[in-house]
Structures are given as C-alpha cells and as structure tokens.
C-alpha cells in the first residue's frame, strides 16, 4: 500500500510557520500582511471559498477583508475597486474570486491587478515570469503540489512526470514549474489532454502522475506502473445515497485500487485541496516582504 500524502497536515504546518512570522511582526508593532478578496455574485461555492480564505488569514494574524459585490456590478466598478486596492498600502495581496458573472471580462480583471499584488499568480506577467524561470508568484494549487512533493522527499530531478490536464489553473503551470532547472523540479514532463489517443501509454511510463482532468475516478490501476507517486488534484461530486448530503467528494484517481500499486498517493479530500489556501497565505506573505523591501529602498 502507498504512503498517504497528508495535505491537511502539511497545510497546517505551513500555517503554523506563517503564524509565527506574523506574530513576530506584531511584536515589533509594525504593519502585517493583508489580503483583500473580492467576490462578485451569489455563487455558493465561491462564497464558501472566500470565507475559508478570510478565516485562514485571521487565524494566522494577517489582515483580511472581503468585498462582496452584487451580481449586477459593472465591469467598470470592479476595475475601479481593484485600482483602489492596488494603491492601498494595507493590502499586499488582491484576489478576485472566479468565476465572474458573464458580463465581466475575466482577462481584463486579472490584468488590472498590480503584478506585485497578484497572489493568485494569474496575471500574464506572473505567468510569463514563471515560464522563463524568473522569481514570481506561483499559482496556489500547482505550488501546493510541488510543496507536497518536496516535504515528502519525492525526487523530481530526472524523473518522468506525466500531467493529465492542460488548464491554465493547474496543468500548464505545474508542468512549467516542474521543468525549471532547480531543486524540487528539473523533471522530464509530459502533458496529456483530450487529444491523447493512447493515454495509458503515457501514464504507465510516469514516475510521478499528476491528475487534473476533472473526471471522477478516471485514472485506474491498469493505467499506472508499480511504485508511481500519484498527485490527485481532482475534486468531483458523485452521487452517494448513503451520505446525508446525497453525494461524496472523489478525485480523478481510483484511490482504492491505484493506492495498491503506488508508492505515494494523495487522498481526496485531504490531499492537495488544503494546500491551496496555505499557498495563498504564503504568497500574501511573500508579497508583503517584496513590497515592504521596495518601499524601504
């Protein structure tokens, strides 16, 4: 049986590390890192995510604010609000919760956030710097994946990493991060997607398999080799009459059977998921450090 990668445990460790740093700042009676999250509309999942992010900030002592805007908010008003926080010294990170209502252009919104406050790592400048290997903010979920590999001492250098999925949020950035010539990366990376005619040919060759395709239990035991390390990014709802909610959460990997062949595997829930918020907090702290240094020089 595989070693279970406990993302919840690692996320709590990272939060504790950040809390200690923030406490030290407070002891010096100086400004602490601040994150503002902007939510447009009434999407229930988005509201839950935003609340969780704000709560996590408060728990480690960071300044946190939620801007809740109605669905009919104009694009112009939203862009103006972002401008306000771009120049607000109390907030070092700006996060606009996606998805946005259809009448608002997400690209315009993302590009309006000052790159030095882009703690989601979605701004084109952040993406470009990631690809060419420059210092930048890494998107939170891919960064969480690399942090799990690092903390469980799973070697990546020279290993074949197969990423199933090519989204801008997970697949593309995690592939580019693992390609970089540095510790915790330096991998040989293959990205598979819907055009892959024989997906199993690639997945069976993976030393590390990262599943981020959004299909429940898609990766089965016959698709992987013995000893593979499996990182399951998927979060899918499937019907479950035995659950009071009528559904359960599963990943993109058939955990029960794949775990019998893998050396390491992340569960769902409790694997990659908790790492996303932990990395957001870390990015906010890094933004604070960078902005503070700039103002002192």
Write a brief caption for the model.
The chain has helices at residues 7-27, 44-60, 75-86, 106-112, 124-131, 140-151, 171-179, 199-203, 255-258, 273-296; strands at 3-4, 34-40, 63-69, 93-96, 160-164, 188-192, 208-211, 229-232, 236-239, 247-250, 264-265. The protein is an alpha/beta fold and 297 residues long.
Termini separation (Å)?
53 Å
How many domains in all? 2
Measured as a percent range, the helix fraction is: 40-55%
- The count of DSSP E runs of length 2 or more, i.e. the number of strands, is 11
User: How much β-strand is present in the residues?
Assistant: 15-25%
- Given helix and strand content, the structural type is alpha/beta
- Mind telling me which CATH architecture of the largest domain this is? 3-Layer(aba) Sandwich
Q: Tell me the CATH superfamily of the largest domain.
A: NAD(P)-binding Rossmann-like Domain
Rough outline: globular
The CATH topology of the largest domain is Rossmann fold
Biggest β-sheet strands, sense, barrel? 6 strands, parallel
Mean pLDDT: 96
CATH C-level label of the largest domain: Alpha Beta
Radius of gyration: 20 Å
SSE arrangement, N to C: EHEHEHEHHHEHEHEEEEHEH
Outline the low-pLDDT stretches: none
């Amino acid at each position: 049986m595989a070693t279970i990668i406990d993302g919840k445990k690692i996320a709590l460790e990272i939060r504790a590390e950040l809390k200690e740093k923030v406490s030290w700042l407070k002891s010096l009676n100086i400004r602490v890192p601040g994150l503002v999250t902007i939510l447009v509309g009434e999407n229930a999942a988005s509201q839950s995510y935003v609340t969780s992010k704000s709560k996590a900030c408060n728990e480690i002592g960071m300044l946190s604010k939620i801007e809740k805007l109605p669905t009919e908010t104009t694009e112009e008003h939203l862009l103006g609000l972002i401008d306000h926080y771009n120049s607000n010294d109390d907030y070092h990170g700006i996060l606009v919760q996606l998805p946005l209502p259809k009448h608002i252009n997400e690209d315009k919104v993302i590009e309006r956030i000052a790159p030095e406050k882009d703690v989601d790592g979605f701004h084109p400048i952040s993406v470009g710097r990631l690809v060419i290997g420059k210092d930048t903010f890494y998107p939170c979920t891919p960064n969480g994946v690399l942090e799990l590999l690092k903390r469980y001492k799973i070697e990546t250098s020279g290993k074949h990493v197969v990423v199933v999925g090519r989204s801008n949020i997970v697949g593309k950035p995690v592939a580019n991060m693992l390609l970089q010539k540095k510790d915790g990366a330096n991998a040989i990376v293959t990205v598979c997607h819907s055009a892959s005619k024989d997906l199993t040919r690639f997945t069976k060759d993976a030393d590390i398999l990262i599943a981020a395709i959004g299909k429940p239990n898609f990766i089965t035991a016959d698709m992987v080799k013995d000893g593979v390390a499996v990182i399951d990014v998927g979060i899918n709802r499937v019907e479950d009459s035995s659950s009071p909610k009528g559904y359960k959460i599963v990943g993109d990997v058939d955990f029960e059977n794949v775990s019998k062949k893998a050396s390491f595997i992340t569960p769902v829930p409790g694997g990659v998921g908790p790492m996303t918020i932990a990395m957001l907090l870390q990015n906010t702290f890094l933004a604070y450090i960078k902005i503070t240094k700039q103002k002192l020089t």
